[in-house]
Automatic annotation (TrEMBL):
It comes from Bradyrhizobium lablabi. It comes from the Bacteria. The keyword Membrane does not apply. Keywords: DNA-binding, Transcription, Transcription regulation. This is Transcriptional regulator, GntR family. GO terms for molecular function: DNA binding; DNA-binding transcription factor activity. It holds the Pfam family GntR. Residues 8-75 form the HTH gntR-type domain. InterPro entries: GntR_C, TF_FadR/GntR_C, Tscrpt_reg_HTH_GntR, WH-like_DNA-bd_sf, WH_DNA-bd_sf.
Length: 222
């Protein structure tokens, strides 16, 4: 049997999968993340796991401690709401800038993602809806070209990935999310900066409301 030769993007793939495991609750807050066990689960080597954990540590999703390994970072409900509020303001800026910069190729890319979101929702694949949600926001950030804001947003979103996943599973939230993103894309493609920002802020208001509901439901189950 040939030895596994790590591909250049193996570490990124492992980080994506670890992030998803944390989002879906497979790994819970404060749970220890043992490199050898993760390597087995993810069918990779410890070096890739170690690099992936370092990436998630930088995002604020896990905590690495000397001589104690890594664990899933616990984000309090209060902190999650503070992060969501900060993200709202930044997302509005990005949407406005994207509307000012979007070209024909950008419009095609954005509309394609929305089409995929609609298909995923129709198939009740809410995990895929969540993935495409992140993909669409990343594409809007790329179009806007504001690297500083994009870096801040990536960190903020990663820290509350678990809460965001619970929120998208709330009844009616996935449908509303798809509709909200379609409105954002329509405004960006039309080059309407004011409408794009307003549509994004409405979407983020929906995100925050759903986040509050998810937190309340989780507290009620405790």
């Amino acid at each position: 049997m040939e030895a596994h030769v790590p591909k250049q993007n193996d570490q990124g793939d492992v980080a994506v999968r670890l992030r998803e495991f944390i989002a879906t609750g497979r790994f819970v807050p404060n749970e220890r993340l043992v490199e050898v066990d993760l390597a087995t689960v993810l069918q990779t080597n410890r070096a890739n796991v170690r690099i992936a954990l370092a990436m998630l540590d930088q995002e604020g999703l896990v905590i690495r401690e000397r001589n104690r390994g890594a664990r899933v970072r616990l984000v309090s409900d209060i902190e999650a709401m503070e992060i969501a509020d900060a993200r709202r303001a930044l997302e509005g800026v990005v949407a406005r800038q994207a509307a000012a910069c979007a070209g024909k190729a950008d419009a095609i890319s954005l509309r394609k993602i929305v089409t995929s979101m609609r298909k995923a929702y129709a198939a009740s694949d809410f995990i895929q809806v969540s993935r495409l949600n992140g993909q669409l926001h990343a594409e809007i950030q790329r179009i806007a070209g504001n690297k500083t804001v994009a870096r801040l947003l990536e960190t903020l979103k990663s820290q509350i990935v678990r809460q965001q996943y619970r929120a998208i599973l709330l009844p009616g939230r996935a449908k509303a999310s798809v509709q909200e993103h379609a409105a954002i894309v329509a405004a960006i493609c039309a080059g309407d900066e004011t409408a794009a920002e307003a549509a994004m802020l409405r979407h983020m208001d929906g995100v925050i409301a759903a986040l509050k509901q998810a937190i309340a439901l989780n507290a009620g189950m405790g």
